[in-house]
User: Fold these one by one.
Assistant:
Number 1:
Amino acid sequence: MDISKEKISGGDIIVCHMENAAAKLMELSAELDDCIDKLVDTKREILETIEQVENINYRLLLEMRYVNGESWDSVADTIGCDVRNVFRIHGKALKEIEKIKKCQ
């Protein structure tokens, strides 16, 4: 008995759903690739801007927070000061970023 030639009731419907699901998956995959590309470009731009900051402590803080996604507590521990001082340093670092962005 050759089952490859047998017609299964509703089989066309299942194939249609599978084709639609595959098409949707490919579409979503392309959208995800676009989002990843934009994220990589944004991260590159952030790093390039941070690298222009002259003060190494400001650069370290900005990279830890905005590139590595570390918490304020983690940044404070690494730098060796309390969170309040990290916020103060962060404010100064952002002013340096503003100056850099104005010159571009």
Number 2:
Amino acid sequence: MRKNISSEEKVNLAIDMTDTCVSVCVESLKKKYPNINGKELLERVRERITYNRRRRCEV
């Protein structure tokens, strides 16, 4: 990977990584809960994504 990437490229990489993380999370939850509805899926994805953020605040 190049060391000197533009700010725009950094933002695009961050967006792509976030999208990938969310996709992995969604697929994991769908596998664990095959009959999950859209609303519950969204709630559980939000819980998982914010879990680490909440943990850092507690430490």
Number 3:
Amino acid sequence: MDRERGKAEKEPNTMPHTKPAYTDEFKREVLAHMASAGQSLNQTATHFGVSTNSLREWR
């Protein structure tokens, strides 16, 4: 039996998976806002459009 039969051919991934570049100033601003507003990680990430993992790395 041919295992490859019936499988759709995958298109090559043309978009590289890179992290967005944030300036140190932006990172400090986001962390300062989170501290002063008393917001959670999730709330701050949503407000600024960044991932919660990014915020964890910046702390």
